[in-house]
Specification:
The chain is an all-alpha fold. It has a domain of 51 residues. It is built from 4 helices and no strands. α1 crosses α3, α1 packs antiparallel against α4 and α2 runs antiparallel to α3. The longest helix has 23 residues. It is globular and about 35 Å long. The chain starts with 17 loop residues before the first helix and ends with a helix. 18% of the residues are buried.
């Protein structure tokens, strides 16, 4: 007896609309960027302002997209990386929605 797959890729997904697919890709891209930012900020002492985050990322050799994402952060103290990540993901999704 063959086990039934948990997710059958041949069946259409009710959420598989062009908008959902675009949103899913935008979210995946934003999360990937957030992961790169996390790697660049491994040595940050929290709380930290964007200038400190940018300095740390540059010192770690972060890529241009990471530095650009940090430059778009609001000028406020971030208490932890999850706060930075949430802000970056929200900004990335807003940017994708803009025409």
């Amino acid at each position: 007896m063959d086990p039934t797959p948990a997710c059958d890729a041949t069946q259409p997904d009710s959420h598989d609309t062009p908008h959902a697919t675009t949103l899913d890709k935008a979210l995946a891209d934003a999360e990937a960027l957030s992961a790169r930012v996390l790697h660049a900020l491994e040595r940050v002492n929290w709380p930290a302002h964007p200038a400190t985050l940018i300095e740390s990322a540059e010192a770690s050799g972060a890529s241009r997209d990471v530095i650009d994402a940090l430059r778009k952060l609001p000028d406020e103290a971030f208490g932890s990386f999850p706060e930075v990540s949430a802000s970056i993901i929200a900004e990335q999704l807003r940017a994708r929605e803009s025409p």
